[in-house]
Design goal:
Pfam families: ChapFlgA, ChapFlgA_N. This protein is α+β, with helices and mostly antiparallel strands and 236 residues long. Helices cover 17% and strands 36% of the residues. The chain has two helices and 14 strands, in the order H-H-E-E-E-E-E-E-E-E-E-E-E-E-E-E. The strands form four sheets. Strands 1, 2, 3, 4 and 5 form a five-stranded antiparallel beta sheet that branches. The protein is elongated.
């Protein structure tokens, strides 16, 4: 090989080396997709702490072709109206040295217990212990108002007929009235060192803890909190 050929080969090798170095530097200065995934996963773990069940966080695919500048402190956030529950979208942003924002799909599964009908339930039928069964599943795939404890539904009635195996929704159940329209009730009021009671007549149905209006013997309308046993607590 003559000197000219050797010089050309040396130059070519040098150019290859410079290109490889530049590519490596650019790769080092890019945001690692694994770091993005970890940021989203850790954020959702914190946001979902305290949920009623075993939480599993799954982060969606991150496009490896996405070129983002390296960020020393990426910040994850939820979009307005979003929550760390079921399918969700998490934003990740960088403030410096190069500002950018990306959005990453994720799923938060919550394995826990919920209450379902063990037998068919008729509309208006008071629910008893033997009509209930505890089941396990992903609560994030069920309605937000799903019952997770039998105590939440015992004694209540359904607004519709429910088939066996159907998860029970609290917004589809009605509490049994402890005060009924037209029935006599006892108005009670107590405080520091005193207690007063009188009789009246309820003008509506009310479950325990609900506000109900009562008409006194003198014809005055008062409002109070319905309690079991036909009592209405009134604040004076």
């Amino acid at each position: 090989m003559n000197q000219a050929a050797m010089n050309r080969a040396a130059k070519k090798s040098l150019l290859f080396a410079i290109a490889a170095f530049a590519a490596g530097t650019a790769q080092a200065d890019a945001m690692n997709p694994a770091a993005l995934r970890q940021t989203v996963e850790q954020f959702l773990q914190v946001q979902s702490a305290g949920l009623p069940g075993k939480v599993t966080v799954t982060v969606g695919n991150i496009d490896a072709r996405m070129k983002l500048a390296a960020c020393p402190a990426p910040e994850a956030f939820l979009m307005p109206g979003s929550k760390a529950w079921g399918k969700t979208t998490v934003g990740v942003r960088c403030a410096a040295p190069t500002p950018w924002t990306v959005y990453i799909q994720a799923n938060v599964g919550v394995l826990g217990n919920y209450i379902a009908a063990a037998t068919p339930l008729s509309q208006g039928q008071a629910i008893t212990e033997g009509q209930l069964v505890t089941m396990q599943g992903d609560l994030a795939t069920l309605p937000a108002s799903i019952a997770t404890d039998k105590a939440q539904v015992l004694g209540r009635t359904s607004n519709v007929s429910i088939s066996a195996g159907t998860p029970l929704r609290l917004d589809a159940l009605r509490s049994q009235p402890v005060v009924k329209n037209g029935e006599k009730v006892r108005l009670v009021s107590s405080g520091n060192g005193f207690s007063v009671s009188s009789e009246g007549k309820a003008v509506a149905n009310a479950a325990d803890g609900q506000v109900v209006q009562v008409r006194t013997a003198a014809g005055q309308a008062v409002s109070g909190i319905a309690r079991a046993g036909g009592l209405v607590e009134v604040a004076f």
